[in-house]
């Protein structure tokens, strides 16, 4: 393992979230449904475990009835310098299109570019680059 991998729990939208993140970041999705893993505590086609493998890695699943979904407060996922500036700006713009800009991606007084954006799934991202 090379670092922390976020694991997000959704109320029936894990597949859509992983597909969205794949469209943003690239990579491959691996999905296992409740039925495939022998779970009968939710819909058979719900995602019991899903992974986005690529430049940005994420895990996601759908919750079974009674399980809590991910609610993110006071946390953001930092993608500082993880790609070329044009790529980072594209990621920011894509998240902003269906989400909301918390702090525009712009040159800051300390000489770097960064900004904060919340995507349509409620995940907050800190995106930026040096110079």
Automatic annotation (TrEMBL):
It comes from the Bacteria. This is PhnB protein. The lineage of its organism: Bacteria, Bacillati, Actinomycetota, Actinomycetes, Micrococcales. PANTHER family: PROTEIN YJDN, PROTEIN YJDN-RELATED. It holds the Pfam family Glyoxalase. SUPFAM superfamilies: Glyoxalase/Bleomycin resistance protein/Dihydroxybiphenyl dioxygenase (SSF54593). Residues 10-125 form the Glyoxalase/fosfomycin resistance/dioxygenase domain. InterPro entries: Glyas_Bleomycin-R_OHBP_Dase, Glyas_Fos-R_dOase_dom, PhnB-like. CDD domains: PhnB_like.
